[in-house]
Amino acid sequence: MDATLIERIKRDMHEQFERKGNPEGFPAFHDVPISRYISDEFWELEKKHLWSRVWVMAGREEDAANPGDYFTFDHLRVPIVVVRGNDRKLRAFYNTCQHRGAPVVREEKGCANQLRCQYHGWVYSIDSGELKSVPDERDFIGLCREEKFLTEISCESWQGWIWVNQDPDAAPLHEWFGVPFQQMEELCGSELRAVGPRVMDIPCNWKVTAEAFLEVYHFRFIHDRGGWSALDNRGASMGLLPNGCSRMVTPFSKKACELRGMKDWADFQTFKDPRFIDIPSVNDMIRSTSTAFSLFPNLISPVAAYGFPFIMFWPIDKSNTRLMWSHYAPKDWEGDELPPHWQQRMDEFDFIMDEDKWNMAPMQRSLESPAMKGVVVNYQERRIWHFHETVDRTIGIDHIPAHMRVAQVLGPYIEKD
Ligand code: FES
Ligand SMILES: [Fe+2]
């Protein structure tokens, strides 16, 4: 984040504390149609037009560090294999053999100088997906190898994280996420290691889970610590970024400031927990607030100087979601065993996630109740509206029946840099 942006956010936090209502002229939101969460029709639209068109994070560079290293990726419910070629370039292919459709590789990860299908041994190049050899080829009449390549999809990296996109017309990753990537650059992701992967299945629509991380309105209720909570949502600064992405900077509560030795929430300082080796480039505002980024559609990260999680929401079906997260930490210890301060950090974070799960798990049935007419989104929850607008634009507004859409109103409020 550059100094101008940091100053703008700090000013905005002051203004958020002081405002008496919504800014002059800010559009009123209609209720979000409930069918977006519970209907088969909307779920089918998302499967067909959204998940097949978005960039999603598939793994880390170190998961395929050397030529021939590969890993499979199935969270989109479409089998994909990511492999590093002999030229060291990462590529992603549909993991579907062009003979009779078996998954080419079955292991979660491995290393091979060619991809040999487990079923009848067709062999594909790791550099191009080219069909290199076919056992008993004489038995195939008119087999054209050039037509039987493994199908490649887009695959790009950013700061050690590998992303894939099935849409051949998708904008390049760094263009699509240009603004948030720039604001997150100081996290120096390439220098970090993944720790403590977690999986949590929640019986509700994936958008319900995403929304719970796009606002801080719930914080003092769901994350109550006996009459106090760590954050003060009244001062939260929301940044709407291009392509459905967003940023949220929330000041610490009075009690949290006391515990950290801060005079008040605006006492920005280079707070440093002596137990952690931190990421030195992280700015003082991130160290003295809760700052989070959302990368549309399914990745949220509450960032911090000592390391941070990436939380992802993968739809299992219309009413079930798999939450997966890993923390990314500076490499300040050897081996896989967590040092005590990191174990404590993970335990604290797991506790917060359990509180969110406790909140989200009963929501789907409640949303399906005849009592529920539509979802209300307020001004401080406007990242949720921004997210829904982008869902519609990604699906294609014309594909969505009018009664299921949300109004496209936040365009003028999106930060361009
Ligand atoms: S299905 Fe792959 S070689 Fe037959
Ligand atoms: Fe929460």
| Unreliable stretches covering 5 or more consecutive residues | none
Q: Which strands sit side by side, in order, in the main sheet?
A: 2-11-10-5-4-3-6
Q: How many domains?
A: 2
Counted beta strands: 19
CATH class of the largest domain: Alpha Beta
Kindly report the CATH topology of the largest domain.
Answer: Naphthalene 1,2-dioxygenase Alpha Subunit, Chain A, domain 1
| Radius of gyration, taken over Cα atoms and rounded to an integer in Å | 23 Å
Return the average pLDDT rounded to an integer. 96
* Global structural class: alpha+beta
The major beta sheet can be summarized as: 7 strands, antiparallel
* CATH architecture heading of the largest domain: Alpha-Beta Complex
Q: Strand content of the residues, in percent?
A: 15-25%
How many helical elements? 12
Tell me, briefly, the overall form: globular
Distance between the termini: 10 Å
* Ligands, deduplicated: FE2/S2 (inorganic) cluster, fe (ii) ion
CATH superfamily label of the largest domain: Naphthalene 1,2-dioxygenase Alpha Subunit, Chain A, domain 1
Percent helix, as a range, is: 10-25%
Please tell me about this protein's structure.
With 417 residues, the protein is α+β, with helices and mostly antiparallel strands. The chain folds into 2 domains: 3-52 and 179-413, Naphthalene 1,2-dioxygenase Alpha Subunit, Chain A, domain 1; 56-173, Rieske [2Fe-2S] iron-sulphur domain (Rieske Iron-sulfur Protein, 3-layer Sandwich). Helix content is 25%, strand content 24%. The chain has helices spanning 3-18, 35-38, 40-50, 173-176, 178-183, 206-212, 219-222, 254-260, 284-287, 340-360, 363-367, 382-395, and strands at residues 32-33, 56-60, 69-73, 80-84, 90-94, 109-111, 114-116, 123-125, 131-133, 152-158, 161-165, 192-202, 237-240, 246-251, 289-295, 299-303, 308-317, 320-330, 374-375. The strands form 4 sheets. It has a 7-stranded antiparallel beta sheet with strand order 2-11-10-5-4-3-6, with no helix packed on it. The protein has a 7-stranded antiparallel beta sheet with strand order 12-18-17-16-15-14-13. Strand 16 (299-303) and strand 17 form a beta hairpin. The mean pLDDT is 96. The structure holds FE2/S2 (inorganic) cluster (FES) and fe (ii) ion. Fe (ii) ion binds at residues 212, 218, 222-223, 356.
